[in-house]
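Let us practice reading a record.
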Amino acid sequence: MLVEIPYQREKAVRYAQRWALKRNPAFLNFEGMGGDCTNFASQCLFAGSGVMNYSPVYGWYYISAGKRSASWSGVTFLYNFLLKNTGAGPYATETNRISMEPGDLLQLGDETGNFYHTPVVAAVSPDEIYVAAHTFDAWMRPLSSYSYEKIRFLHIQGARKYQRQ
């Protein structure tokens, strides 16, 4: 049976703080393969949800460098997973700046709609969102310091896991 579980934002942010400026050796570093930002965002999501989705093709999981889903490390694939996920793992809605909370995700894009970077929201103030990220390693970097043409705000609503009755 699939049950709802809360997304533990504090755990996601603590993980982000610990690993924002270094790499967790349990995960492949994608720096030389297009960037490590979405891999890092997925690690933070996993820290906050504790659940992966092992569905072939459309799941979200990391077992090893050779056994992982495209959504674990691909910007668009993660976006699609989070918005369409009705199974195990975290899920999100696309929202606006005002709805952002620590542990949520942002995706930055160019004028053509190519989204290329996935920072994690570390803190929110009335005037600023502060992020943690890999590739362009950052902890508590102001969103206003980034240059981008488009942005997506992904609010993590919760997670689901399978539980025996």
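A brief commentary: DSSP finds four helices and ten strands in the chain.
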